[in-house]
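sry for the spam today, last one i promise. struct tokens for design, 321 residues
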């Protein structure tokens, strides 16, 4: 089951697909160095995340929690979305592969929002073991390229499957889908994310520097991307939603983040312009806005190696001008 929330046309022409936090979240397979998770606080932080999306996109589709699937809130790993093409993945952790079923069912539901350019999304699913594995968190999509992290979760066979599946969806075809080894982290998007306007947030670490060097090697040093090395790991994972850049709590005022946001065409302030309190019982979380640079609480998900992009799928209803 899922809930569809329709939004006003003034919001970005996007569909956000999210999934509620499982009661078994603290027992997930994602974290490399598991820490004690406060489940009530995680649920409240996810509520704040969904509220932030509801305020900025036309549609939010929320799937029911799967209490026997601890990591299912990290819905990004279940699909790769490029234009109207949706590749339903085969996640690298066997315990997570059943998570894809509910996502597939949601896309096939009669009330799921359709793209403007077609009557439905072009769905393709990786079912055959020979196709390998792909985690969506290893797939970094920009308007010109798809960078695929070769990691413990995304195999070489999975990369080749993804190349074949998405080559017609990318203007540059197969050659614009590029594999990059993931060094010292779980997923590629723990090391680099796209902020818009050709700007990349990159972790200032061994893994992040390897990504940057791999970009130069694959495309040449005049590749046209702005590389912003982030000294704080939490600042590396940013999420562009229309005119807004969502970032982890505590990152918006960082000089590197402010520079990235401005380069990405995001209206930004040095000081808070709005604060929204989200409460449940004795717990409180905050959504803090610096104009269109917006902080979202993520501390409980970070304990499970989860970041902002991990908790949603974003689909374009049509290309924004």
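last one done:
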């Amino acid at each position: 089951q899922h809930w569809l929330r329709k939004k006003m046309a003034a919001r970005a022409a996007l569909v956000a697909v999210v999934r509620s936090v499982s009661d078994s979240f603290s027992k997930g397979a994602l974290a490399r160095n598991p820490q004690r998770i406060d489940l009530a606080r995680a649920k409240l932080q996810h509520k704040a995340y969904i509220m932030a999306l509801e305020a900025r996109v036309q549609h939010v589709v929320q799937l029911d929690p799967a209490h026997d699937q601890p990591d299912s809130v990290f819905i990004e790993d279940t699909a790769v979305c490029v234009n109207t093409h949706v590749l339903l993945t085969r996640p690298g952790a066997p315990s997570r592969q059943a998570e894809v079923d509910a996502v597939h069912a949601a896309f096939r539901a009669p009330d799921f929002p359709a793209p403007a350019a077609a009557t439905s999304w072009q769905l393709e699913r990786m079912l055959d073991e020979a196709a390998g594995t792909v985690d969506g968190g290893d797939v970094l999509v920009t308007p010109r390229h798809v960078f695929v992290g070769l990691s413990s979760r995304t195999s070489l066979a999975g990369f080749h499957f993804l190349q074949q599946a998405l080559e017609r969806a990318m203007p540059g075809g197969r050659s614009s889908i590029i594999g990059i080894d993931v060094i010292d982290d779980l997923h590629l998007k723990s090391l680099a994310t796209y902020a818009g306007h050709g700007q990349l947030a990159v972790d200032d670490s061994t893994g992040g520097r390897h990504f940057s060097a791999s970009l130069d090697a694959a495309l040449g040093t005049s590749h046209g991307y702005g590389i912003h090395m982030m000294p704080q790991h939490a600042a590396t994972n940013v999420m562009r939603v229309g005119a807004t850049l969502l970032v982890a709590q505590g990152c918006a005022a960082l000089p590197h983040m402010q520079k990235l946001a401005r380069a990405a065409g995001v209206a930004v302030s040095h000081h808070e312009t709005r604060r929204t309190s989200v409460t449940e019982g004795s717990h409180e979380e905050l959504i803090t806005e610096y104009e269109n640079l917006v902080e979202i609480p993520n501390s409980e998900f970070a304990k499970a190696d989860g970041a902002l992009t991990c908790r949603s799928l974003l689909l374009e209803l049509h290309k924004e001008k």
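The longest helix spans residues 39-54. ok im logging off now
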